[in-house]
Design brief:
The structure holds 2 protein chains of 2 kinds.
Chain A: H1 2-18, E1 32-33, E2 60-67, E3 70-77, E4 88-92, E5 96-97, H2 99-111, E6 115-119, H3 133-149, E7 158-163, H4 165-177, E8 182-186, H5 192-200, E9 228-233, H6 245-251, E10 256-261, H7 269-273, H8 275-289
Parallel strand pairs in A: 1-5, 4-6, 4-7, 7-8, 8-9, 9-10
Antiparallel strand pairs in A: 2-3, 3-6
Helix pairs in contact in A: 3-4
Chain B: H1 9-23, E1 42-55, E2 58-61, E3 64-72, E4 77-84, H2 85-88, E5 92-104, E6 112-124, E7 140-153, E8 156-166, E9 173-184, E10 189-203, E11 218-230
Antiparallel strand pairs in B: 1-2, 1-3, 1-11, 3-4, 4-5, 5-6, 6-7, 7-8, 8-9, 9-10, 10-11
Classes of the chains: A alpha/beta, B mainly beta.
């Protein structure tokens, strides 16, 4: 019997030891980069990116940042000369593909009369390195530093905007790095933990299955210290508003504005409402605080 | 629907795995004790299965696995303890233990009734920076209570019941309704097959994962297989 008990004890210790090593994570759920050799190549552009090619090439400035030895690529799009003292938007992308995928948003923001800086996270597009929550936050800091260092940017008129996973980065930048004038979030998940609980009901931390556990806007949103505009699709069945955006909006401090779009899902708000309405909503919010 | 509004198959597959791995934690494995072992007797069970989800090419049960040891304390009371295999690949230590007692024996149409309860523990022994970590904030404990009625049919068992986990946040009670059978191959070896309706009162549409077997858009049906050694 003692032999059996000793054997069982060894088995138990072995199992406990096995549990102390992470063989697998579900971070692939967060990061789906697509690398490219060059941006805006026709073979890389899908129709459903809805790119209209409205920005003159002369206003698109390629940018390369250094993020802990990794080159991070982006574009600074200048507002037309007719705009006096334009707002500058730092736009943080979602979790898949690269800048090509999100250029439609850049075009719409530029059409609002803004400078726009858009960049690819490490591991995305041409950017070197591998994506992680830490890398994304680092890239955001670099993007903010770059924009703030430009002599054609009014530091009091910088806006952070993020889409989906990019909203984690946006909220982080506002709460934990440099406060912008305004924050705009589109289809924001609340946190890794909230996404997980949305699926499984049990109160388990997101860090159980993903390394990107610091993707957590829920803990930061109250500290962004700036007016917030949050938009979400009522029919978003991926990042369900009631269990994500609604939580964030409730925790955010005033002033804040919510736009819940009937019939829209995760990434098609601008198509559902039409570009004029989409631009109008963003412009109205920005003009209310940055006339 | 616009392609941009759809999520890649791979993403859904991963999300499904992510979500239902943990849905499968609801009442992990097969029912811990359908009938008492008898004093001094032991059993070892390997169980695998979970709710149906769409991943890697089709709808199938999530393979949530555990091993369970059971010992008869008295003729009617068992002690059980389990080690959860699937969380281990994520660096999560998952254990459960508890007591089950038979409160009624089978009598004609009245089923035998077993009621049991215990605790499920989960602890992240491996942190996101890829090193050992013993952060107490990652510790979770969920009380568990189960009820099972069973019929002995020519030495095999048919049973039904509910397996419930409790927590301090909403939803406070997370249930799996159970219908199962145990086939006795020999004195030593039996197999169990359960079908479970996980989270039957939770709307399973509009979730980040694609549950493929809900009933009236609630919960998700799953299958769990148990291999039982009695000694």
């Amino acid at each position: 019997m003692k032999t059996t008990q000793a054997f069982l004890l060894i088995i138990v210790l072995l199992f406990c030891t096995i549990s102390c090593y992470r063989f697998y994570t579900l971070d692939v759920f967060y990061f789906e980069p697509e690398t490219v050799d060059e941006y805006f190549q026709p073979e890389d552009i899908e129709d459903w990116y809805h790119i209209r090619w409205v920005i003159p090439d002369s206003l698109i400035e390629p940018v390369v940042l250094d993020a802990k030895g990794n080159k991070v690529y982006g574009f600074f799009v200048k507002a037309t000369d007719t705009i006096i003292n334009p707002v500058t938007v730092i736009f943080s992308n979602g979790k898949d593909k690269n800048i090509n995928r999100y250029w439609g948003w850049v075009e719409l923001l530029w059409e609002c009369g803004y400078n726009v800086f858009n960049y690819d996270y490490e591991g995305y597009g041409k950017s070197e390195g591998s994506p992680s929550d830490e890398a994304c936050y680092r890239d955001k800091r670099k993007a903010v530093d770059y924009v703030r260092a430009r002599n054609d940017v009014d530091l009091s008129r910088i806006v952070y905007m993020g889409l989906s996973m990019g909203t984690y980065v946006t909220v982080y930048g506002a709460a934990d790095y440099v406060k912008p004038a305004l924050v705009i979030l589109e289809s924001p998940p609340a946190s890794s933990t909230a996404l997980l609980k949305d699926s499984y009901l049990l109160d388990l931390p997101g860090s159980y299955v993903v390394d990107a556990a610091d993707f957590d806007s829920e803990k930061r949103i109250a500290n962004i210290g700036t007016p917030l505009f949050l938009m979400a699709g009522e029919d978003d069945d991926f990042v369900v508003f009631e269990r994500n955006g609604e939580i964030l909006f409730a925790k955010a401090k005033e002033p804040k504005e919510l736009w819940l779009v009937h019939g829209a899902t995760h990434t098609d708000i601008k198509e559902v409402v039409g570009y004029d309405v989409y631009r109008g909503k963003i412009s109205d919010f920005v003009n209310a605080y940055l006339p | 629907m616009c392609k941009e509004s759809s999520i890649s198959v791979k993403t859904l597959s991963i999300a499904a795995t992510l979500g239902v791995v943990v849905w499968a934690m609801i009442g992990c494995g097969v029912i811990s004790s359908v009938r008492p072992l008898g004093q001094g007797k032991h059993s070892l069970t390997f169980a695998v299965g979970g709710p149906f989800a769409d991943y890697y090419g089709g709808s199938k049960p999530i393979p949530y696995g555990l091993v369970r040891y059971r010992r008869g304390l008295t003729e009617r009371t068992d002690f059980y303890a389990s080690y959860h295999l699937t969380p281990a690949i994520f660096g999560i230590l998952g254990l459960d233990f508890g007591i089950a007692k038979q409160y009624a024996v089978q009598n004609s149409i009245r089923p035998a009734v077993n009621i049991g309860g215990g605790l499920n523990f989960f602890f992240q022994a491996y942190d996101t920076s890829h090193s050992l970590s013993f952060d107490p904030k990652t510790f979770r404990a969920f009380p568990q209570v189960f009820f099972v009625g069973s019929y002995d049919v020519k030495s095999h068992l048919i049973y039904f019941g509910a397996d419930n986990m409790l927590q301090w946040t909403s939803p406070y009670l997370v249930t799996a309704l159970v219908l199962g059978g145990e086939y006795r191959w020999s004195r030593l070896f039996r197999t169990t097959l359960e079908t479970r309706w996980f989270a039957p009162w939770e709307n399973s549409t509009f979730r980040a994962v694609n549950y493929t077997a809900p009933i009236f858009k609630h919960g998700d049906i799953g299958l769990v297989l148990g291999l039982n050694l009695y000694f």
